[in-house]
Amino acid sequence: MTYAEAVRDALAVALEQDPSVIVYGLGAPDPKGVFGTTLGLQQRFGQDRVFDMPTAENAMTGVGIGAALGGLRPVLTHQRLDFALLSLDQIINNAAKWRFMFGGRRGVPLTIRMILGRGWGQGPTHSQNLQAVFAHIPGLCVVSPATPADAKGLLLSAIFGEDPVIFLEHRWLHGARGETPAGDHRVPIGRAHQLRQGGDVTVVASSILSLEALQAVDHVAAQGVACDLIDLRSIRPLDWEAIETSVQRTGRLLVLDPGHETGGVAGEIIARLTTRCWGHLRAPPRRLAMPDAPESTSPALTQGYHVRAEHIATAIGELLGLQLESASLSRRSHPHDVPGAEFQGPF
Amino acid sequence: MVHPLDPGVSRRILRDMIRIRAVEEAIADRYAEQKMRCPTHLSIGQEGPAAAAGAVLDGQDLAVSGHRAHAHYLAKGGDLPAMIAEIYGKATGCSRGNGGSMHLVDEAVGFMGSTAIVGGTVPVGVGLALSLAIARKPGLVCIFIGDAVLETGVFYESAGFAAVRKLPVLFVCENNLYSVYSPLDVRQPAGRALAGVAAALGLGSSSGDGNDPQAAYSLLRTAADRVRSGAGPQFVELATYRWREHCGPMFDNELGYRTESEFLAWKARDPIPRLRQSLLSDGVIDAVWLAAVHDEIQAEIDAAFTFAEASPFPESSLASADIYSREMAPFP
Fold it and tell me: Which residue among A233, A325, B8, B162 sits deepest, i.e. has the most Cβ atoms within 10 Å of its Cβ?
């Protein structure tokens, strides 16, 4: 099934299994069903449990917190992460702090889906991946699955966990297909997934960059370079053990970050790995992140803005002092600003 | 409709006001000892709305509040020793010391939490009401707010959702005229009443004198009955006045942000003697009752402070605990 279908499947499984689960968001029951991820859920589970909301992101986040304290397991959906920025007060001051500031008596089991836009003119305020902002906050969990199976498994773990979870869902992944287990499939929050094994370079990725990295790693494998490819899946808590174990073996680290470079998650990973694995490093760690600039709306200015497979393959070569062939990865049958030829907008 | 105070209710309101004031005066008296080391916002002078609301709410009703919450917590039945211990930062505090004066909670009596960001618990209260509505549970959620909350965006967002879904919410707005030192006229245009704003948002709305406990009770009771009948969220604005400084135990009229004459005029409208005289002259209470109430409250307060002082501080290892659930806790 597709990633979008996997998200819908997870929501349906949760709604079916536990009457305390509710799903809401602007457009949740609308004819397009949030890119297909909520289609048919209101018809199946009723207006009490699946519902639309006012364009009031901050209050509706607080409503989710209150509903959670009242015994529900709410899932709130934002069609873009950028819209959720209006709710930082409720997320940071209430959801993340409730357990701590009231002495550990009770947490807030609230799941907040935020969809990350990209390309096709999304522009400066419909395309931000601010995972680092949320990962900076003690009390929040942040997950960013790359595959349909992980999307389903992490969403179910988020809904049935006892902590607030920011669920980052890349718009370009909605059409991606993959094997997805049926039923109540859970993936534990905080555990990375090793997509490829190899002793030369450790590549750490997440979200859509895990798919770009997979392409690059398989491409360089054909040239004799074997990489460990670690798909983080969770940004906070982060699976430090998986990265450290790998770097201790490879001595070379490349971190891919779908957010801006300065103050980003890749910088944190490199800082921690450098202090903990200094003696194992054979080359300075590298990172590839989004530039420290907003994404332009013009397709002319988004060429080269995002990290792609060819950049990753080149960087792997540089870490090893090798010139690897990567140019062929940049030949695509569709424009650079869409996930595939079938995507024709509008968002 | 006017709800006359029956003797039991009127005694309860008077006792609660006397108790809240005595607790807060005890806090003020000991504040200089530097053992209570957190910002503390006292309700002395404005106990009327809290005590009247406490008499209107049932055990199944829930409440949330903001930074000036001692009175609301106590009127809802919150545990006094746990509150004092919380202000002392002790392990026995209602939030185990992590929250202080501005983070009170006692879920056993339906006091679901007070927080320090103005307007911060408004949507939380609306969400609690949503959970009651979805579960078809009885009861309502009382959201205690001050006048400044009607300047926050989250109030409008929350009130809108409560109105569109007809949720069981009772907004109790204590209008004490000041947001810290900023008077109402720099925050609201002339002629725009808070109750009028609430009405325009689709809330049932009324206003009255919060320092007249009988009038406040009548308004709140009417509004609560409407909520319980399914009429949707209601808003009651109650005029009142804080006597002490915004934050801390002292008086601060010398700062000049408000006049001494304004302060004295409000002090003359002290809600406690007003109700006490009325009940004495009606024969609902007598001097013996008052003396007994005074003694009981004093003993309770002494015991609460003794408990707080004797309680241990939290273990230092708890500084980084209770951030995640047990399931997530092992992760760095």
Answer: B162
Distance from CA of B45 to the nearest CA of A (A): 28
Query: How far is B18 from chain A, CA to nearest CA, in Å?
Result: 28
Per-residue model confidence as pLDDT tens digits over B35-44 = 999 999 999 9
- Of B99, B158, B325, nearest to A103 by CB-CB distance is B99
Cβ within 8 Å, pair A67-B321 = no
Q: What is the pLDDT of residues B196-237, one digit of tens each?
A: 999 999 999 999 999 999 999 999 999 999 999 999 999 999
* CA B281/CA B275 separation, integer angstroms: 10
Is A126 one of the catalytic residues?
A: yes
Q: Which domains does chain A have, with CATH numbers?
A: 3-173 (3.40.50.970), 193-329 (3.40.50.920)
Structure confidence at residue A138 (pLDDT): 97
Residue A58 C-alpha, separation from nearest chain B C-alpha, in angstroms? 6
Taking only the tens place, the pLDDT of each residue in A291-330 is: 999 999 999 999 999 999 999 999 999 999 999 999 999 9
Please give the Cα distance from B137 to B131 (Å, whole number): 8
**CA dist., res. A120 & res. A345, Å (int):** 7
CB-CB: which of B64, B132, B161 is closest to A56? Answer: B161
Pairing of strands A227-231, A193-196: antiparallel
Q: Is B90 on the interface with A (CB under 8 A)?
A: no
- Smallest Cβ–Cβ distance between A138 and the set B62, B160, B323 belongs to B323
Tokens of A285: 């760690």
Interface check B265 vs A, CB under 8 A = no
Specify the 3-state DSSP secondary structure of A156: helix
**Partner residues linked to A193 by β-bridges:** A231
Which candidate in A101, A233, A268 is best for mutational testing of the B interface (most B CBs within 10 A)? Answer: A101
Question: What is the secondary structure of B25-73 as a DSSP string?
Answer: HHHHHHGGGS-S-S-----TT-HHHHHHHHHH--TT-EEEE-SS-HHHH
Contact call for residues A158 and A111 (beta carbons, < 8 A) = yes
d(CA A325, CA A7): 37
Q: Is B123 part of the contact surface with chain A (CB cutoff 8 Å)? A: yes
Q: Which residues contact A274 (CB under 8 A, 6 or more apart)?
A: A281, A285
ipTM over 0.95: yes
B122 touches chain A (CB under 8 A): yes
Superfamily designation of domain B7-178+186-307: Thiamin diphosphate (ThDP)-binding fold, Pyr/PP domains (3.40.50.970)
Measuring CA to CA, which residue among B140, B146, B147, B143 is closest to residue B166?
B140
pLDDT tens for each residue of B150-201: 999 999 999 999 999 999 999 999 999 999 999 999 999 999 999 999 999 9
Q: Which residues of B55-70 are buried (b: 16+ CB within 10 A; e: fewer)?
A: bbbeeebbbbbbbbbb
Query: Which residues of chain A lie closer than 8 angstroms to B135, CB-CB?
Result: 70-71
CA distance linking residue B315 with residue B4, whole number of Å: 51
- Mean per-residue pLDDT over chain B, rounded: 96
